[in-house]
């Protein structure tokens, strides 16, 4: 939808009392909108990062909102959506445990594996040392210096 069409649809939603529903994708609903004329958000497409869902809800729950607001998330059991929500909950729990007031004490109780798990899946090398798995399409793996970076070995 063009910016002009989007503005027109939002204006109609705001001004026409006969229009009671505005449909927006999660990605669109999370970008630069002020929807204080709405009071309910229904999420049908969960996102792996719950911050995107929270940001979409914040388009309704903003300064100037006069109504009670609510957020409803739909999820179909035994689908990828359920796994996404489980991943969101696990990530939020892990992050919350580190971000509390006693974060320093909690972080010191967390092992290196616990901290690494926040950044991705962990595997062990042949010596039992943990590393974070990443998707790297370069068959050489890791960082490789070139003419634009310090450490270009061929010029030394």
From TrEMBL:
GO terms for biological process: DNA repair. Keywords: ATP-binding, Helicase, Hydrolase, Nucleotide-binding. GO terms for molecular function: ATP binding; ATP-dependent activity, acting on DNA; helicase activity; hydrolase activity. The keyword Phosphoprotein does not apply. The keyword ATP-binding applies. GO terms for cellular component: nucleus. It holds the Pfam family Helicase_C. This is Helicase C-terminal domain-containing protein. It comes from Didymosphaeria variabile.
């Amino acid at each position: 939808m063009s910016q002009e069409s989007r503005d027109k649809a939002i204006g109609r939603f705001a001004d026409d009392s006969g229009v009671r529903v505005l449909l927006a994708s999660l990605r669109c609903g999370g970008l630069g909108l002020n929807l204080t004329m709405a009071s309910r958000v229904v999420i049908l497409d969960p996102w792996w990062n719950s911050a995107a869902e929270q940001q979409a809800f914040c388009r309704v729950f903003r300064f100037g909102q006069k109504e009670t607001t609510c957020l409803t998330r739909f999820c179909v059991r035994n689908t990828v959506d359920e796994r996404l929500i489980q991943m969101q909950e696990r990530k939020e729990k892990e992050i919350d445990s580190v971000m509390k007031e006693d974060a320093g004490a909690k972080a010191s109780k967390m092992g290196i594996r616990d901290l690494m798990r926040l950044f991705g899946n962990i595997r062990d090398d042949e010596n039992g040392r943990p590393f974070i798995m990443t998707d790297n399409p370069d068959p050489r793996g890791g960082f490789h210096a070139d003419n634009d970076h310090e450490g270009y070995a061929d010029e030394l």
